[in-house]
Specification:
This protein is mainly α and about 350 residues long. Helix content is about 70%, strand content about 5%. The termini are far apart.
């Protein structure tokens, strides 16, 4: 535990300091979010590229640990796997910088998340088996694993991308997800010191940035950062032995909200309309109904923590029940706001 705290604090400190430099870089390069669109909540230009601070802090501390001791390679995770995580993150940072600088259309900005997901697969990050909630284990073939990892990472990355609509929201929720994976990795049943340490570094990197990103934010994650925090959480869930249920329970409400928004946009204007930004996400709706940004973020954190904790005590079948409860909860919320929209449109 001492090692986790020490390396986590180092990542926090580095991310904290790096965010200051990244902010100046963003302002100098013109990577700034100007509130010219109606869906924007902030009132003045805010620097983007914040995800770069998380990436640098996480990568630097991971390199130091890999060079100084063997904890990170004490299990089934290899140097080759970590290289894939680094290169995948680098791709997201490059694509995110270009997107933040030039505001790329959706069919172009999807390229970097696509390549990042493909990269980790090429570097051997896979899911060999999944727990069957009805008993036993489901073993996956290589092609099944590749498809699942790709779809999983794309879904998680775009969930956090859509979630990044209020100060500190995406970073807070993904930090909680990483914390749950770390705690699960420290239990007797799943003891994985390498995954726990990697999670601690990820948490420290995110929290160091969150200090500057929490409302009122002085810097945003940016396109690269909003997908990178999801990328880290998604990779942690895979690399820890297929703990997808843990991340799913933490991201349950944001993920279901993303599905709801995508379906609504598709019905309203087809495929081209899916990536058209608006203020119909749940966090926007709560904000527009009078909840402050901090209150909405706190609400999401409570939900994420509450369902995340269930992964520490529930078995596979009980986790499935929790996921069903989340889905029903989100369905009720969607029906409520859909009726509100129809009523207000009359």
């Amino acid at each position: 535990m001492t090692q986790l705290i020490s390396w986590g604090l180092l990542a926090f400190g580095l991310s904290f300091v790096m965010t200051v430099f990244v902010k100046q870089l963003a302002l100098k390069k013109g990577a700034v979010d100007v509130p010219t669109k109606a869906r924007k909540i902030h009132k003045k230009p805010i620097a983007r590229l914040g995800g770069l601070a998380i990436f640098v802090a996480f990568s630097a501390v991971m390199f130091i640990i890999l060079a100084s001791n063997g904890t990170l390679v004490s299990g089934s995770i290899t140097y080759f796997h970590y290289a894939g995580v680094f290169i995948g993150g680098l791709i997201l940072m490059f694509g995110g910088y270009v997107d933040d600088r030039y505001e790329l259309p959706a069919h172009i900005s999807i390229v970097s998340p696509f390549l990042a997901a493909i990269t980790v697969i090429i570097f051997g990050i896979e899911i060999e088996k999944l727990s069957n909630p009805f008993g036993g284990v489901i073993y996956l073939t290589e092609i099944q694993s590749d498809i699942l990892v790709f779809v999983w990472l794309m879904v998680v990355m775009y969930t956090t991308k859509f979630l990044d609509g209020l100060d500190g929201l995406a970073t807070s929720v993904t930090s909680i997800g990483s914390l749950m994976i770390m705690l699960l990795s420290l239990t007797v049943a799943y003891y994985q010191p390498d995954v726990a340490l990697m999670s601690a570094v990820a948490i420290g990197s995110m929290l160091g940035f969150l200090f500057w990103n929490f409302h009122p934010a002085s810097i945003f994650l940016g396109e690269g950062g909003s997908t990178y925090v999801g990328f880290l959480l998604g990779v942690l869930a895979v690399i820890s032995g297929g703990k997808l249920a843990t991340a799913l329970l933490v991201l349950g409400i944001p993920l279901l909200d993303a599905v709801w928004v995508v379906v609504r946009r598709y019905r309203a204007g087809g495929i081209k309309n899916i990536f058209a930004g608006d203020r119909k996400h749940l966090h926007h709706r709560l904000y527009d109904r009078g909840f402050g940004q901090r209150s909405v973020v706190l609400f999401y954190m409570i939900i994420a923590t509450s369902f995340g904790i269930t992964t520490l005590v529930f078995q596979s079948r009980e986790k499935l029940v929790a996921l069903v409860i989340l889905a029903l909860l989100m369905l009720l919320v969607a029906l409520f706001f859909s009726r509100k929209d129809k009523y207000e449109a009359q």
